[in-house]
Description:
single chain, mainly alpha, globular, disordered C terminus
Amino acid sequence: MRDAGAGGEKPDRAVVRDALGVGVAVGLSGFAFGVTSAGSGLTLLQTCALSLLVFTGASQFALVGALAAGGGPFTAAAGAFFLGVRNAFYGLRLSQLLALPRAVRPFAAQWVIDETAAVSLAQPTRRSARVGFVVTGLSLYVLWNLTTLLGAVGAEAIGDTDAWGLDAAGPAVFLALLAPMLQTTTERAVAGLAVLLGLGLLPVLPAGVPVLVAALAAPAVLWAQGRRNGFEGGDPSSASDASEASQALGASKAAEASEASKAPQEDR
Length: 268
């Protein structure tokens, strides 16, 4: 690797360090998914297959959370699908930034997730973005699947995960991922409204549906903010696309955390 880049390029060593930091930190949360999935009734094979084939933590947690709450497979899958749609928008941006060969793109698509997109988009050059994408994707994929296996095996060994309080592992991971993203008043309002919608609708809607409804918190808050800016003479369209994406992601994860924390209690 090059230790220093020319023309303002970020050193490869620094990119690898940052990418590994993200990959290791998030990859360890696969243990929480393995425990949560096993606790919701999925087999070891099913749990590991989700991490190997789906590989998007938010959707995976939403799926097992809905199943644990007694939701049907189609409802659970629908919630997971809509949460995963955001990765398609990441892919549109990353395809231009990375400009990978066509033969490689189908394989790279498996690694298009929140973390790889964040690391890649933060880089100053295409080379740095490619290094960040590969290192983040590889380290996270390997560690996520390994810790998923360990979590599922550990959950089977200890038996009732609820008795150990491990049913709170999933919501705790979501909150840890969400908290750093709430940097503005608008983002906090989106997350708060999403939590209220998710918790408030749990008693009256089928499992998995409150997550979908809670996602409406983002457009609702942005609409209210646009009207307020209009009355104040501001330009409602001045909000950046990146800010809107962050707010929508925050709403989804806040809703997932609230539903996942509620679901195990309904089974007791």
